[in-house]
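Handover notes (outgoing to incoming on-call)

Open items:
1. 4,5-DOPA dioxygenase extradiol: sequence verified, structure written out, both below. Nothing else pending on this one.
2. Nothing else urgent.
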Amino acid sequence: MRQYSIADLESRLAPSPRMPVLFVGHGNPMHAISDNAFTREWSRIGADLPEAQAIVVISAHWLTPGSTHITDAPRNRVIYDFGGFPDALSRVPYPSEGDPVVARAIRQQFLDYEAQLDAQWGLDHGTWSVLVHLAPEPTVPVLQISLDYAMPLPELHATFARLRALRDRGVLFIGSGNIVHALGRARWEPHAQAWDWAVEFDRVTGDALRERRVDQLLDPFRTWDTARIAVPTDDHYRPMVAAMSLLDPDEDLSFFNEQIDMGSIGMRSFMTA
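4,5-DOPA dioxygenase extradiol structure tokens:
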């Protein structure tokens, strides 16, 4: 395996204006092949994003308890990690390149935290179902970083904050999950009304994000009574924490797709203004 020097890593990601950070509520995989208010907003935002040197996604659907992995295959395979959906969803293409040099640059930024390179994973639906709208024809490498599901939220926040400097080298970071994600309480009928607790938890977390009350967001179950219902497991909440860690303290956020889908899936998303 080729060994990359510091010069290799620095030359691959040239200094750039600071790139934005996004957190995207990805919701139902069917959004990948749907034309609706959510997907149209993804397309609108994607068209206005500055040109990146790499896109790095932190998806709720890649959990690696006890470690953090970074994709480093030269070309990404598409993972159809779901069942019970129309066959058309499992035929969605998303041809994209990876980049072993960028993967090593990310690992280097983690410093003493030992992240692992992973050529076996690909792009799961938390990534490609959003990118088919945000970046439908990627011209830069796309990588994923996994979530250590055993890591406490404050430690997760501190760990991903180490990657912040890569925003100044053309890296566009996207967290992909859902702040409110109670799939077991989903209402499948069209135009279903949102549960009161889902609306409440979405509201209070949105306020905390806007006001950058990080301590509360890193301890949601003690902070808000509705958290136990709205976040029965925090796999989809963690990408928001990772995205939040990449923000500068004085950066403003703008929200989009602030609706509750299927009664219990919060689509609230944000990006640096």
